[in-house]
Amino acid sequence: xxxxxxxxxxxxxGIAVSHSHRRSNRTWKPNLKRVKAVVDGSPRRVYVCTRxxxxxxxxxxx
Length: 62
Fold this sequence. Notes:
By secondary structure, the protein is mostly beta strands. It has one helix and four strands.
């Protein structure tokens, strides 16, 4: 579910480094919103990242 349906931005993985430099695995999830958008001419609910919403890649359905 953690994937934008317009740009395919998904979860990225990396390493969290503490102050004492102990390392552990961690994830970064995209900032997704469930919005009603026009897809292929019909409105439907999709998960979209806020970057796509802000840049205008998504046409919102009213």
